Write a sequence for this structure.
């Protein structure tokens, strides 16, 4: 059965953060909007709802209060050194990077504040680099945690969309899966697809793909905001570049199953040019979720700088591949070892101070805006509740009172047969010898001492330097780490208005793209690497640009 065609001024495909922003901008411009998604309405907000809510800002009041001196010039130097644009097709991504940096240094914060978005006062320092002034990484802390995490950043845009729905200016259509963009005389005039059967599936839970009827929607402007490919391991492996070694045989999934990349092929069939598909952002600090929501559900540890990082054989990772310094460099190095996992060896004191878990559901104090819980969980002694749950229930955690017992358990753990136990012992003992003196040749120890010069790290992020075998800091903890999929850095090429570009470089009339589907702007605003806090920000900025242009 085919339903009667519906029509609108603007059709938005995908109700993640970029789609919600685009739809709200179209509503503000007085347009009639249809917003569709293949999932049940419980998933309004998409992948962003599950996020930690980190946002990249430049020279913010939060930074200044923490004694951080930042500037657009320094952030631009960091972005370009991190992105390493080197392809002819990077023309539009570079332009998007320049525009986004201006946004992050300018109206981004005030625009969000006007919508009721606030920020945790301590600014985080992600992707610390460690190579040199022109190399990758953030020279200063720029990771601003949204008060309310992912749900907090989604809320004002979801509210605007729902208000538009109540007022009759916007229609939300769940369970609408697009299989074709309608092209009429070279102009995209809407979309066709399948209506999927109703489901009571909770947020994030994999849902049925059984079609019960077809649909067609006509629109003057269509915005593709359907996300990336991180939930589809087949597409991830197919796009995996040689420079990152071979794709892992085993990966965890950091996004729900609906992040399936299905709209990439649909957009390409309508003439859109996809670029930089080989650029991707996956983490190597993934742990198996003991309480999973979607298939192969993994959680990323957001590590502080103190844990000892070993590959699957027990060899320490080289400088500067310390926890939290260079995600892509660490991924490339570990893939070259031929093994799918690595290890943290650490102490409970480090876990208490430095282990944060990515995800709104793993941070109930920040997500719930609960100051009392925050004071008890972040500033009091002991790990946060979610971290303690992984210590108690997580299959990747080993806790023992002494080194020999820890080594024995590591050796018998799945994957532990690859370890050279004598080498692990040497690494721990050598590291502990170095830390007993105020002077050291160990670069990681020198760096973590330097990091504690930043007030934010000293308060809540970096443990006081100590021996791993210090009984007062124990027990010892080993954590088996996996590759966990997360972001596509490439996508549909767009100009600065979010208009999708064809193979000839000209805009496809009627077609726009935003968010991860467009590589967060231009088909890959991040280049090869991200500075963190830039994914949600890319959805905000690209969704705003596309929503405004599609409404013009």
């Amino acid at each position: 059965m085919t339903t009667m065609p519906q029509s609108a001024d603007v059709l938005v495909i995908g109700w993640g953060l970029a789609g919600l922003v685009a739809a709200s901008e179209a509503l503000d411009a007085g347009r009639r909007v249809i917003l569709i998604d293949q999932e049940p309405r419980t998933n309004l907000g998409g992948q962003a709802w599950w996020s930690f809510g980190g946002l990249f800002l430049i020279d913010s009041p939060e930074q200044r209060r923490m004694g951080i001196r930042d500037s657009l010039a320094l952030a631009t130097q960091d972005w370009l050194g991190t992105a390493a644009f080197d392809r002819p097709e990077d023309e539009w991504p570079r332009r998007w990077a320049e525009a986004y940096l201006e946004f992050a240094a300018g109206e981004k914060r005030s625009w969000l504040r006007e919508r009721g978005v606030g920020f945790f006062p301590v600014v985080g320092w992600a992707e610390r680099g460690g190579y040199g002034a022109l190399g990758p990484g953030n020279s200063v802390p720029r990771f601003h945690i949204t008060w309310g995490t992912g749900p907090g950043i989604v809320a004002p845009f979801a509210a605007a969309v729902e208000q538009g729905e109540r007022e009759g200016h916007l229609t939300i259509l769940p369970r609408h899966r697009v299989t074709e963009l309608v092209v009429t005389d070279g102009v995209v005039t809407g979309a066709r697809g399948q209506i999927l059967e109703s489901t009571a599936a909770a947020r994030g839970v994999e849902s049925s793909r059984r079609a019960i009827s077809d649909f067609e929607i006509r629109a003057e402007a269509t915005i593709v905001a359907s996300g990336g490919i991180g939930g589809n391991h087949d597409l991830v492996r197919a796009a995996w570049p040689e420079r990152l070694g071979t794709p892992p045989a085993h990966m965890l999934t950091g996004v729900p199953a609906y992040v399936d990349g299905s709209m990439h092929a649909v957009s390409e069939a309508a003439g859109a040019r996809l670029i930089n598909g080989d650029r991707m952002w996956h983490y190597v600090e993934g742990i198996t979720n003991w309480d999973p929501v979607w298939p192969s559900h993994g959680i990323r540890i957001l590590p502080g700088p103190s844990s000892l990082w070993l590959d699957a054989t027990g060899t320490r990772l080289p400088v500067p591949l310390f926890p939290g310094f260079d995600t892509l460099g660490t991924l490339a190095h570990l893939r070259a070892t031929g093994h799918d996992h690595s290890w943290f060896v650490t102490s409970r004191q480090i876990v208490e101070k430095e282990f944060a878990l990515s995800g709104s559901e793993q941070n109930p104090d920040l997500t719930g805006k609960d100051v009392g819980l925050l004071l008890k969980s972040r500033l009091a002694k002991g790990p946060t509740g979610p971290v303690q749950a992984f210590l108690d229930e997580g299959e990747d955690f080993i806790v023992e009172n002494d080194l020999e017992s820890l080594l024995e358990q590591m050796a018998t753990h799945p994957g532990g047969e690859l370890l050279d136990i004598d080498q692990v012992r040497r690494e721990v003992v050598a590291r502990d010898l170095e830390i007993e003196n105020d002077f050291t040749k160990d670069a990681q120890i020198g760096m973590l001492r330097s990091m504690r010069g930043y007030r934010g790290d000293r308060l809540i992020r970096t443990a006081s330097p100590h021996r791993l075998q210090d009984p007062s800091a124990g027990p010892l903890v080993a954590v088996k780490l996996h590759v966990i999929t997360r972001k596509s850095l490439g996508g549909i090429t767009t100009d600065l208005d979010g208009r999708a570009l064809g193979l000839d470089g000209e805009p496809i009339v009627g077609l726009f793209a935003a968010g991860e589907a467009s590589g967060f702007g231009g088909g890959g605003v991040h280049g090869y690497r991200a500075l963190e806090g830039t994914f949600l920000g890319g959805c905000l900025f690209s969704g705003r640009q596309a929503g405004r242009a599609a409404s013009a």
